[in-house]
Amino acid sequence: MQSAEGPGDGQVAAGRRVSTAGTQTDSVSGQTPRLSKVNLFTLFSLLMELFPPVEQQKKSQVKKTGLVVVKNIKMVGLHCSSADLHAGQIALIKHGSRLKNCDLYFSRKPCSTCLKMIVNAGVNRISYWPADPEISLQNEASNPTSTEDAKLDAKAVERLKSNSRARVCLLLQPLVCDMVQFVEETTYKCDFIQKIAKTLSGCNTDFYTECRQERIKEYESLFLISNEEMHKQILMTMGLENLCENPYFSNLRQNMKDLILLLATVAASVPTFGHFGFYCNGSQQTNDMHHQSLPQEIARHCMIQARLLAYRTEDHKTGVGAVIWAEGKSSCDGTGAMYFVGCGYNAFPVGSEYADFPHMDDKQKDREIRKFRYIIHAEQNALTFRCQEIKPEERSMIFVTKCPCDECVPLIKGAGIKQIYVGDVDVGKKKADISYMKFRELEGVSKFTWQLSPSHIDVHEPTARENGIQKTQSLDEQQHQSKKLCLGNH
């Protein structure tokens, strides 16, 4: 079976930063850059490899791997390997014969053990990140046995690929023009960064720049191979000789670097910073297991997923993403007992043309031509296209990049979702035809908003009027200490 790995196949583009299709509507010509679905699925696979470990990963030749299962261009599964099971094995356990005609996106090329099973399940296509595979080819020279085993596995994978109906390929598309710059600019304005900045002198966002640089460094070490010759050797061992010649090799590496830069930028938008996190207000504290908060690192990780989804928006002004998870009893996945339920971003109705509906929300314009009555909200899409039912006996949670509006709050409660994790900058406000009044009064659902931990708020801190010098020094010290915490917690 021919792969999509060589020049001319159209999957690894020779040019850089071209427009890509794949929207909720049939066509799009919006004013802002958007992530293609292929790149969204690829980035989600990398992000799933970074899912906070719920158990100690055994040191072995097998590298932790993230996996996204896609059916009918919708995500139906998010997984990562555990200490005992590879990502492909987990997909078989979780989905079984439902994998038929699905597309699978791996953060590493799957090993022969996984590939033979998922091919046997009748998957349509298997895409993977073109760096070090699941059975690592980057072993120490002092361990020749492991290196030889990895090469033998790579040969077996190539033979399985060549004799299967499934298309095993690379699906890396160049980002649209100015996409990375757009993501960086909008990240500065997101709820999570702005709320931290307001606690620092002069709305300083230097902490974000440092966090972003740390994430870039971390992700490049995980997902890129710094030595170009070593990268070529690994590609050739995996049967990707066609990509080792320029301009294909240089274009491939640039596309990979761009995607890592974008992922690091989005990840830094929900930073580990001082004592900021997702917390309930005092009156909402409860001992009910269904309403107890997630560990902060897991909550941040899921919110980063929602932030990624926001860059698929068809709303040229406000990108919103939402993702729903639940917690069951099974724990074979690297996500522990947590499992993916659904996700969405704000977009116009399925099947419509981009120009069919108004896109304006200017208060000075006629109310008839505003977008609010036509656009489907991220929470609504996540509920509509969910791949699992929301079970009342299990803890379920939705992560939304913006405060849910009055349209969505009753839907979230009615669906039986137990927890909301959100930025709350718009709480209690009314903007044009959109109201955010109901969220504050919502009962029966635990609301975890991005804020400074209530247990670390110093109510006795002197004001600037009382002691201007002390206030300035206190903020400077807080900023310095928070930077250290931001960088040290990783």
From TrEMBL:
EC number: 3.5.4.5
Presence of keyword Secreted: no
Species of provenance: Gopherus evgoodei
Biased composition (Polar residues): 20-31
Protein's recorded name: Cytidine and dCMP deaminase domain-containing protein 1
Region described as Disordered: spans on this chain: 1-31, 468-490
Cofactor dependency: Zn(2+)
Keywords from the UniProt entry: Hydrolase, Metal-binding, Repeat, Zinc
